[in-house]
Structures are given as C-alpha cells and as structure tokens.
C-alpha cells in the first residue's frame, strides 16, 4: 500500500500467500503471526534495508510481536524473523481495513496451485550446512576406557576428603557414615539439600550451573594454577569468577587470594610498587629533632614561607621571606630556634639550594647533625609537609580576596597550630 497525493491508500503490489492443510488448522493468533512472517519472507528482497509501516487489524498480533512470551518454538522463530526488519507496527480497526481484508476473502483463481507443500519455517533456506560439516566414522573402542578415568575434567583424580567424603557417603546411602558423630550428622543432613550426586560425582546446586565439589588440597591447588597461570594471569577477581563458575569448596576466595598474591609473574608486572615497610624513628624528647621545609606562596611582596617543626611535639616556627636563600634561612634558624630552644640533635631538610652550604655549616657549628632527604622517599619529611595544605587553606580563608596580606595572619595561625593537641602523641604542645 502507498499513499497518493490526497492521503488515500492505494495498492501497489499484491502478493497472495496460501496456507497448507496443516497451517489452516492453527489457532487464529498463530495464523495471523504466520501470515506476517510468510509475507515478509516473500517480499524480503524489496523490504530489506527499508523502514516501512506494517498495518494489522489484530491487537493480539501486536502484543505477540512487541512483547513475545510464546509457548512454542515455531512462533518464537517467526517473531525472531519479523524482528529482523525495520518497521512501525500500526493497528487498523477491521471496519477501515477493507482492502487487505477483501483481498484475503477473494475466491481462488483458476490457475492457482492447490498442491500440498511443507510447513513454513524461515530457517530452512537460510541455514545451509557447511561443506566441511558432516558425520564421519568414529573409533569408539577407547570411549569406555576414557569414561572410567575419573579426572573430573581437571587433569587429576579427585578423591574427596573430610566434609566432602562424609557428604558423598551420606547422599549415596542416606545413612550415617561410621566415622562421624550425631552432631556432625545433623550438620550433614542440614546442608545436604545443597548437594547431590551425579555420575558418581559430588556436586553443589547453583543458580547458574551446578558446581563440582572439590575437598582435596592437591586438586584445589591444581585448579587455581590452571585457571590463573594458563589463562593469562587475569588477577584475583577474574580467577575467582572462573573457578566459582565450575567448582566449589569452603574457603575458595581465601585460597585464590593467597595464590594470586604469591604469583611471581604477577608481582613482577604489577603496577603497584612494592615498598619496604617504614621504620619508626621517633624520639622521646622535645626539640631533639627538627624538620624544615619551604613553601612558595605567590601573593604579595612576601613570596616564601619557611616552616621548622619539632618531630616529637609538633611545635612550629615560621618566617616569611622575600628572597629564599641559604643565608637568610641560616640566620633565621640560628636566632629563632637554636638561641631559643637550644641546638637539636638532628636537623632534616630537603636538598634544595635554600638549605645549602650556609645552613649546613651553621647547623654543624651548633653541634647538630644535618640530614638531607632524597626525592625518592619524600615520606621522611612527612612531619612538616603534611600540614602545608592545612596552613595554606587557612591563610586563603582568612585573607579572602586580598591574598597579599597573608603575612599579617601568619602569627595567629602559628599560635593556633601550637595550642592544638598533637594527634600523634595526644599531648598539648604548650
């Protein structure tokens, strides 16, 4: 059908389709569905790759195509074939659906063939056997020997141990195994609903597929090795998913985790860098070890902030500088720290130029040891560096839009830092 210039439907092509004697006995909804599939198959060379409007007068047919929940295989195949085309399904009432309805009720023509033919099945001509497929002579003399080898598809025989032995013995005889007590028998009975015997093998019920039960240490290690090493080292989660799909034993997740973590190939190619555990080097006396660091602040005249902090108590001393040099840092540390609190046993600094020769000589003259950290292990300066962000955030909040006045708020923020309780040792700084 096609619309003309006035919006009326005009027949363009008519393709009659007759039913066989068997098809004529179908129920009316099934016959309607068969009719749609038959006519689409006949016109597939014209309709394929084109979007069209499919008009029907049966609402049941629309439901069957849009929400298929079908009781038999032929109707399922018909719907699958219909879904291959691109169309809009439109319902037309029977009173207005006169042209197709009239054509379907016309009498048979003189030259129409009424011979019997096979039932319609859209898969008959589409699925053609490959020339390489076929049946060949198979030697079955060794099949019996292979079936008696109870390797359970993992390459080694499985002999159940512990719980697996008792559960298999109970399910085979439904009697109490001789080697267990009454309490253990109750546990076996309670859990037996999840297990069953198939082909002499103990299996566990599962929503997807039954799992083969493996209570044998050697077999468990063999399975994990096969799934992890020989299938591409896919990691803990993927290895566990593969094993869980086929096998089951208690503590399977823990065993897979331990095996994957001990895999040498995975450790060598892991993106997680293995680091040596940090060693505690805390002191028990205040002002015995001091850490210093410089902070760059791009606001106003004062562009640099130097922070010195006691490792034990967390006591801070701060200074603002216009030029960051080793001489200016040395003069400040000598007057504001050494002359106030005495010379510390050790001073830890980074390897920057601001902590260069002048500062190192001043520290050594005071009788202290100077320690210079490396960029490969920045955690050494963690005591002083981890509060930089908190200090800078507080300065920004107090300065507001006028960031050049950050030097005016530094003394009160330093005092606030001094009176806080140290989280590391739970003591008040002053």
Automatic annotation (TrEMBL):
Keywords: Endonuclease, Hydrolase, Nuclease, Nucleotidyltransferase, RNA-binding, RNA-directed DNA polymerase, Transferase. Residues 98-134 are annotated as: Disordered. InterPro entries: DNA/RNA_pol_sf, Integrase_cat-core, Integrase_H2C2, Retrovirus_Pol_polyprotein, RNaseH-like_sf, RNaseH_sf, RT_RNaseH. Residues 282-430 form the Integrase catalytic domain. It comes from the Eukaryota. GO terms for molecular function: endonuclease activity; hydrolase activity; RNA binding; RNA-directed DNA polymerase activity. Residues 112-124 have a biased composition (Acidic residues). SUPFAM superfamilies: DNA/RNA polymerases, Ribonuclease H-like. This is Integrase catalytic domain-containing protein. It comes from Austropuccinia psidii MF-1. The lineage of its organism: Eukaryota, Fungi, Dikarya, Basidiomycota, Pucciniomycotina.
């Amino acid at each position: 059908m096609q619309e003309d210039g006035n919006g009326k439907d005009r027949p363009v092509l008519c393709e009659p389709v007759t039913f066989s004697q068997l098809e004529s006995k179908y129920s009316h909804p099934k016959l309607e569905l068969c009719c749609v599939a038959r006519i689409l198959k006949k016109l597939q060379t014209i309709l394929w790759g084109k979007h069209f409007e499919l008009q029907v007068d049966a609402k049941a047919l629309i439901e069957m195509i849009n929400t298929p929940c079908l009781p038999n295989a032929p109707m399922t195949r018909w719907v699958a074939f219909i879904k291959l085309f691109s169309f809009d399904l439109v319902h037309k009432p029977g009173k207005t659906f006169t042209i197709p309805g009239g054509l379907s009720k016309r009498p048979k023509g003189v030259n129409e063939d009424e011979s019997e033919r096979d039932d319609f099945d859209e898969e008959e001509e589409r699925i053609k056997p490959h020339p390489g497929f076929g049946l060949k002579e198979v030697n079955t003399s060794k099949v019996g020997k292979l079936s008696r080898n109870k390797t359970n598809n993992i390459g080694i025989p499985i002999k159940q141990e512990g719980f697996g032995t008792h559960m298999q013995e109970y399910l085979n005889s439904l009697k109490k195994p001789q080697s267990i007590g009454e309490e253990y028998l109750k546990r076996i009975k309670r859990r037996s609903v999840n297990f069953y015997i198939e082909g002499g093998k103990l299996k566990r019920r599962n929503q997807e597929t039954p799992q083969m039960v493996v209570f044998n240490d050697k077999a468990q290690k063999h399975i994990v090795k096969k799934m992890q090493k020989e299938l591409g080292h896919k990691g803990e989660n993927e290895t566990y998913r593969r094993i869980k799909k086929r096998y089951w034993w208690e503590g399977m997740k823990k065993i897979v985790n331990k095996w994957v973590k001990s895999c040498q190939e995975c450790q060598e190619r892991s993106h997680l860098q293995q680091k040596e555990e940090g060693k505690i080097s805390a002191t028990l006396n205040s002002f015995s070890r001091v850490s210093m660091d410089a902070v760059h602040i791009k606001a106003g005249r004062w562009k640099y902030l130097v922070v010195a902090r006691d490792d034990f108590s967390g006591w801070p001393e701060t200074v603002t500088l216009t030029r960051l040099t080793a001489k200016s840092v040395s003069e400040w540390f000598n007057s504001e720290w050494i002359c106030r609190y005495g010379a510390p046993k050790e001073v830890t600094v980074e390897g920057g130029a601001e902590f260069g020769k002048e500062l190192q000589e001043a520290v050594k003259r005071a009788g202290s040891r100077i320690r210079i950290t490396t960029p490969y292990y920045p955690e050494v300066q963690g005591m002083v560096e981890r509060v930089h962000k908190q200090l800078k955030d507080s300065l920004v909040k107090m300065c507001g839009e006028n960031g050049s006045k950050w030097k005016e708020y530094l003394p009160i923020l330093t005092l606030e830092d001094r009176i806080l309780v140290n989280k590391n040792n739970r003591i008040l700084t002053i």
